[in-house]
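Person: Show me a sequence?

Helper:
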Amino acid sequence: MKKRFIEEQIIPIVKEAEAGIPVKKLCRKYSISDAAFYTWRKKYDGLEVAEARHL
């Protein structure tokens, strides 16, 4: 089953990685793949939720 995440959920996950939590641990916690996380990081790194809505 595929989980759908919205920007309001993705951005805090990316910020957790910026805070120093290992990517593998985050992927297990949120049941996502490494590839999904790195795609999100590439797209949403450095953005706030309000800025991401404009994308």
The mean pLDDT is 88.
